[in-house]
């Protein structure tokens, strides 16, 4: 069985944190638990990250709908 070393552990931790920033928030615990359950997230952190991704997706979806509205479509039948 391989032995974990401090260097390997530090490398793994560094790779998990790469491209991320540390923030501290006061959040409503019941709202956080509900979001975690609704999103099927394993952790609270994952729930927050998924929720932030959904905000971005919502904006992209809205922009796509607005672009589609500008198209002149003709019936095919």
Task: Describe what you observe in this structure.
By secondary structure, the chain is mainly alpha-helical. It has a domain at 26-69. Helices cover 64% and strands 0% of the residues. It has 3 helices and no strands. Helix 2 (29-39) crosses helix 3. The longest helix has 26 residues, at 44-69. It is elongated and about 70 Å long.
Tell me the layout of helices and strands.
Elements: H1 6-17, H2 29-39, H3 44-69
Helix pairs in contact: 2-3
Spell out the key features of this protein.
mainly alpha, 77 residues, 3 helices
First and last CA, distance: 67 Å
The tally of helices reads 3
The average pLDDT score comes to: 89
General form: elongated
Structural class: mainly alpha
Structure summary, number of beta strands: 0
Unreliable residue stretches: none
What is the ordering of alpha helices and beta strands? HHH
Largest sheet: none
Percentage beta strand: under 5%
Oligomeric state of the chains in view: single chain
Compute the gyration radius: what is it?
21 Å
Task: State the helicity in percent bands.
Answer: 55-70%
Briefly characterize the structure.
This protein has about 80 residues and is mainly α.
């Amino acid at each position: 069985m391989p032995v974990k070393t401090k260097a390997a552990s530090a490398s793994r931790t560094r790779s998990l944190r790469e491209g991320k920033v540390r923030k501290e928030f006061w959040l409503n615990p019941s709202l956080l638990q509900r979001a975690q359950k609704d999103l099927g997230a394993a952790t609270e952190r994952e729930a927050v990250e998924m929720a932030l991704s959904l905000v971005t997706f919502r904006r992209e979806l809205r922009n796509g709908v607005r672009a589609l509205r500008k198209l002149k479509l003709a019936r095919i039948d």
